[in-house]
Amino acid sequence: MPQGNAFGSFIPIILLFVIFYFFLIRPQKAKEKEHQKMIAGLAKNDEVVTSGGIHGTIVNVKEKTIVLRVDENVKMEIEKTCVAALLKSQK
After folding, report:
1. b (16+ CB within 10 A) / e for 41-75
2. What fold is seen in the domain 6-88?
């Protein structure tokens, strides 16, 4: 029986890992870094959407949370990481 090169049998596995890296891992890391940058830049009067779909305006920014005004006299305190998108920035 002919024996093939041991390295030759690993080439498809290595190629698969490279494809996964460039199409899945790398874009996800870039998206995560952009989200962290957005969270760090949150300020009072910014309009945001939470991951639960709640729209509101930031009233107060704390270390790990923000106070969000949802409607007249309705305020919620949520984790900063729950902010999914920044609609309008007041900067």
Report:
1. eeeeebbbebeeeeebbbeeeeeeebbbbeeeeee
2. SH3 type barrels. (2.30.30)
Residue 10: the pLDDT is 85
Joined tokens for residue 17: 């890992």
**C-alpha to C-alpha distance for 2 and 69, rounded to whole angstroms:** 72
Rounded Cα distance between 72 and 91, Å, is 23
Residues 6+ apart with CB under 8 A from 6: none
pLDDT tier at 2, thresholds 50, 70, 90: low
pLDDT digits (tens, 9 = 90+) for 35-82: 999 999 999 999 999 999 999 999 999 999 999 999 999 999 999 999
- Domain residue ranges of the chain, discontinuous segments joined by +: 6-88
Fill in the amino acid letter for 65. T
Pair type for strands 65-71 and 83-88: unpaired
